[in-house]
Amino acid sequence: MEEKYRLTGLKLKIYEIIFESDTREGRLFDILLLSSIVLSVVIVLLESVQDIKLNWGNWLVGLEWFFTGIFTIEYLARLWVVLNKRKYIFSFFGLVDLLSVLPTYLAIFFAGAQSLLVIRSLRLLRIFRIFKLARFIGESQNLTLALKASRFKIIVFLTTVMTAVIIFGTLIYLIEGPKHGFTSIPLSIYWAIVTMTTVGYGDIAPQTTLGQTLASIIMIMGYGIIAVPTGIVSSEMIALKRRERLTTQVCPHCLKEGHDIDAVYCKYCGGEIN
Amino acid sequence: MEEKYRLTGLKLKIYEIIFESDTREGRLFDILLLSSIVLSVVIVLLESVQDIKLNWGNWLVGLEWFFTGIFTIEYLARLWVVLNKRKYIFSFFGLVDLLSVLPTYLAIFFAGAQSLLVIRSLRLLRIFRIFKLARFIGESQNLTLALKASRFKIIVFLTTVMTAVIIFGTLIYLIEGPKHGFTSIPLSIYWAIVTMTTVGYGDIAPQTTLGQTLASIIMIMGYGIIAVPTGIVSSEMIALKRRERLTTQVCPHCLKEGHDIDAVYCKYCGGEIN
Amino acid sequence: MEEKYRLTGLKLKIYEIIFESDTREGRLFDILLLSSIVLSVVIVLLESVQDIKLNWGNWLVGLEWFFTGIFTIEYLARLWVVLNKRKYIFSFFGLVDLLSVLPTYLAIFFAGAQSLLVIRSLRLLRIFRIFKLARFIGESQNLTLALKASRFKIIVFLTTVMTAVIIFGTLIYLIEGPKHGFTSIPLSIYWAIVTMTTVGYGDIAPQTTLGQTLASIIMIMGYGIIAVPTGIVSSEMIALKRRERLTTQVCPHCLKEGHDIDAVYCKYCGGEIN
Amino acid sequence: MEEKYRLTGLKLKIYEIIFESDTREGRLFDILLLSSIVLSVVIVLLESVQDIKLNWGNWLVGLEWFFTGIFTIEYLARLWVVLNKRKYIFSFFGLVDLLSVLPTYLAIFFAGAQSLLVIRSLRLLRIFRIFKLARFIGESQNLTLALKASRFKIIVFLTTVMTAVIIFGTLIYLIEGPKHGFTSIPLSIYWAIVTMTTVGYGDIAPQTTLGQTLASIIMIMGYGIIAVPTGIVSSEMIALKRRERLTTQVCPHCLKEGHDIDAVYCKYCGGEIN
Fold it and tell me: What is the pLDDT of residues D224-260, one digit of tens each?
């Protein structure tokens, strides 16, 4: 970010600590923030367990406010040092940063016996705090790239799967019917997804021979269909891997390319490569 | 389609709108039709939910007739502009187009209190409307190609899997027997498929130690067997990807393509490539 | 098989029909035999269904004897024309051919009210008839080759998986104990296999928080472990595919190899390849 | 291990038998030890089955002591011949060797009616004996290497999966709630893992339409996510396989390896390779 060079003094210092991680302070800040996020998420999780809430409720509320305070200061600091404030506020992480503190404050204004439940669910939104983790994984690019390159193939695949589960869901509904638990087509489609993805809860299962035959066909198809996303991702990853291993440099003597990254001399004519 | 050039005036105009998507009107038509198909499928799904049918039944019937009207007009228009009418009628999409409107009309003639259920199931056939979606996904070719190229391997694989589940099904029937829910060999084969594909409903499960040992073997085999279709599809996709890396350059001497990116001379005629 | 040329007249004729499939009669014989095998297996399956047996019992017994007769004649014919009889009898398919007719005959001699059950199970061995199908799929070699090449990796993989499920099974037994259905370590190991292979029947499931945490770890590990056999098979298949596409021929001019199968001229120096 | 050459006489002999497997005695020792480990693990497993313990308890205890004796002698022998004793004791296998005999001895000192249960669980630790198996599989290196090379990608992948299951778990908790069995967020996260890994026990399953819709999305995502570890491992294995295709030939000029099979000149120093 070149905008950084328009900052001076304390602002520049804070910018480097908060947004970058190539200084010692920056790295320390990242580790502390990361730990805080994980801890605050754990607190939200624990608060939902009845037993723990009864015994440790006050502690959890206190810690909750402590982390909300920290994240609020962090959010304001980010807002202060960033030059293009609007861009930050409406960026993905800007919104996530805001959503990770807002529910706790909203709980004050909308307090009251009857609305307690709603507030609790609002507070749960703080779970989005963990999205912040992604910020620290900048190198997930390769994975993202592989997924992006095969975007179109994935859409074709998903459309085919959706069509298949709608048709199979309707067929099983006609075969088994409400008598055997398939009370509606949407529920039957849900069953078809549960079956084709090989999850298989077993809360709904075909009981007639014809239904079980259809289920067998769906399962074996699902078995084959699972190969498609795997094939897509594998081929993209292998292509990425190959690209990494080869320079695009041409030998100045014989004009051939395809040299390894560590090659000093052309492997075809023996001429020196730059 | 060269037959298009034998059309004139309005027919040509309609042909371009309905069958092609490279004009603005054609694209608009495609989007509208696609939306109508999805909506009409959603209506069929909702009609099968008891609660929704009771409260919104009339609306759903009305919308049902509205979409049937639209698809009927569309079908007749297709029939009108196409030159080789018989070919269209008996093509896959010609039949699907017809089947997606027919059930609604059949419901009139076969009306009557006692046959209501049958009619409802006939109407469900309109689900085939969604097959139309495939028309808009012309670029699924690559996936189809990969699957086609490995057609034979897939047959060998399926035969092996079928043989395995028949033998394992018989063995588990002998071991567990009707006492533990394995009431017949076909049902036991169904269980073997449920297990080998890692679906695992749990409605039937082995209860003796020997049966559980056999089940464990089937599961671990299924674990390995799932690798085969994945390997087949992956290797085909990687091969397709490699083909992309070839230049599309034509040899100026013999006019053949398919040269490697690092080729200096044409591998067919020996002439120098640019 | 060169031994064929030591046969004459009728024997040669029958040999060609039964053992080969490059004549018209040979192909017809294969198709008829294949159909008979499938039909006779279906009969065994149907006989195990209580309802069908009661209503069609006599028909099934009749058909059973009809197919047994056909397979007996076929077995004797094979025995008659083959020169090295001992080799055929003790070959895999020789034994399968015998086992696919024997149980029906044994049922006569060991008849009696009390032994009915044993006989029925003996007859089920005729299921091995379907192994005959493999004879017609000679081209499954590629798949077999890929599996063979990675034999050692598969053993390492299976040992690791077995070690993991034994340890995880013992841990879950200690955590959940007989109270929650984990009545013994072998049963707990069975549960670990059911979980790690993502089958998940749900007949036994952890109920304590610690047990569910361990189960989560096993599932996510299983998720990753499933990648290993897939990777093994994929890499073998890709290697096979690559080998198919390249000649091992060396260019006589520049001595380079790696030429495509359809190459006429060397892609490096332009010299003519054989 | 060069330290071996500082041993003489009996110690050298025993060292060669216990630690190496290139002599006939060494190989025999390995096979005997391997069998003993497997048998002793089987005994631990059988002891946990109530019926077997009642009928064969004494035999199992006897065999248990027999194997403990053997492993104790083996441990002491290892300790005696090894030069750097401290290094052995605190090595992974040194600790495993100790842990595989200790629990049986501890059972004597801490005997008593009330502590029986604790002792039994201590004895179960002997299961770690099977870790010894790993010693005999030195060639698992290739698999380990492939996993190591993709260490970082696996961490990114696991973080993404963890984030996804936490968010999906919270959402399903809000949608279904304690009424339908989702009594806390941690339990709901457990359910999300069970669903995303396609295990699907079915002990907890969504019952509202919204919950089932969310479950469907998780399943289809899980379907795609499973492709990522597979892609990672596949691409690593293919890279390993390609490396195998390199010659192991050393350049006669600069003594470096890693040349392509089709290389004519050394890619490091430009010197001609044989």
Answer: 787 888 887 787 777 766 665 555 566 667 666 666 6
Closest-CA residue of C relative to B266 is: C267
C234 Cβ under 8 Å from any chain A Cβ: yes
Mutate to test the interface with B, among C237, C244, C266 (most CBs of B within 10 A): C237
The DSSP result for D48-98, as a single string, is TSHHHHHHHHHHHHHHHHHHHHHHHHHHHHHHHH-SSHHHHHTSHHHHHHH
Q: Is C22 exposed, middle or buried (0-12, 13-18, 19+ CB in 10 A)?
A: exposed
Domain co-membership, D159 together with D191:
yes
Residue A128 has pLDDT above 70, yes or no: no
User: Does the CB of A35 have a partner CB in chain C at under 8 Å?
Assistant: no
Nearest CA in chain C to D185: C209
Whether B124 and B161 map to the same domain: the answer is: no
Interchain contact, A198 vs C198, CB within 8 Å = yes
Tokens of B2: 């060269």
Under 8 Å between Cβ of A259 and A273: yes
For residues A174 and A109, membership in a common domain is answered with no
Tokens 């449920």 found at: B194
- A108 and A173 assigned to the same domain: no
In a domain, B108, yes or no: yes
Does the predicted interface ipTM exceed a cut of 0.95? no
Q: Name the domain count of chain A.
A: 2
CATH code of the domain in which B59 resides: 1.20.120.350
Chain A residues 132-161 within an 8 A CB cutoff of chain B: 152-153, 156-157, 159-160
Q: Are residues B38 and B128 in the same domain?
A: yes
Which CATH number does the domain housing residue B158 bear?
A: 1.10.287.70
| Residue span of the structural domain in which D99 resides | 9-132
Task: Give domain status of residue B266, yes or no.
Answer: no
Q: State pTM to two decimals.
A: 0.79
State pLDDT tens for residues D55-92.
888 888 888 888 888 888 988 998 888 888 888 888 77
| Amino acid (1-letter code) at residue B81 | V
A168 touches chain B (CB under 8 A): no
Which of B237, B240, B242, B243 has the most A C-beta neighbours within 10 Å, making it the best mutation to test the interface with A?
B237
